[in-house]
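Exam revision sheet. Question 4 asks you to relate a sequence to its structure. Input first:
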Amino acid sequence: MKTLTNEQEIKGHIKNTLVCNEIYKTTYYWQSSNSPRERRLNERQFHNDHPDYTFKWNDYEFIIEHRYDESSKHCFYKLLIYKDDLKTNVMALRNIFIKLMQKDDKDYNYEKLKEHLNEPSKMILINNLNK
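Answer key, structure tokens:
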């Protein structure tokens, strides 16, 4: 598990996590690969592209874990977020990301975050996943 220390690195990883979560939250309705070999390859590729990480924010330790699995009929994605070993939800990451962005742009808010998650970076991530 990678430990992040500087704010730019934390901001980049959180943005990728939020974009990834937006893309993969509907995976249950996706069609899984036909062969077990392809399904295991897809799972391994996902875990290579989205490694787990940890960082400290305001004396709290956050652990971020991505889970992706394919069965013969469905795909499953789960984002696990722990704040000092207590499970929390994605809003904690969104709030941290907004606070990090407000250091550069005082007017950054939740509405801008929603736009941010739907900008071309989402398409770039999708294109990278299809390679």
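Marking note for examiners. The longest helix spans residues 7-24.
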